[in-house]
Amino acid sequence: MPQPREWSFGTHRAWFEPPDVLWMKIRGETSLQDAITILEVYREVGNQQRFFLVTDLSEATSVDLKARDHVSWNFHTEWFHGAIYIGAGLMQRAVATSMSFFHSLTGQATRPQHFVSTENDARALIAEERSLLDR
Fold first, then answer.
1. CATH value at residue 46
2. Between 20 and 30 A from 24 (CA), which of 2, 59, 108, 122?
3. How are strands ordered across the β-sheet holding 12-17?
């Protein structure tokens, strides 16, 4: 099991909270280099165990098209229990949903994804999802 860990890149930050939550705070624009780093973090944690990804998008502005494509083509659903997005706007929800749909079309397994308003909502949802995994 990974230990607590933090990463900072550009204006963004990620941190692992044991036992199985990777938190990300996205601020401003996400560039291709940011996306490459994000995937490196996913891979590092995901190669050790599956995790819940919680991404706070409340201060995010835009995602470079090349960054979005890079994530779409290199994202591995087996790394995740599911994804939770905090504060996602309509466009961000559409992009996340379309990426999930894209993965299903390419034959990849999909994982649950949820949209919530607050960190407390995310934590409550993780508790619910964990109870489903334990069944």
1. 3.30.750.24
2. 108
3. 5-9, 12-17, 21-30, 51-63, 80-86, 113-116
pLDDT digits (tens, 9 = 90+) for 51-89: 999 999 999 998 898 998 888 788 888 999 999 999 976
Closest Cα to residue 100, out of 77, 70, 81? 77
64 secondary structure, DSSP code: -
Reported pTM: 0.85
**How many domains in the chain?**
1
**Range(s) of the domain holding residue 112:** 5-133
CB 34 within 8 Å of CB 67: yes
Closest CA to 2 of 27, 19, 23, 15: 19
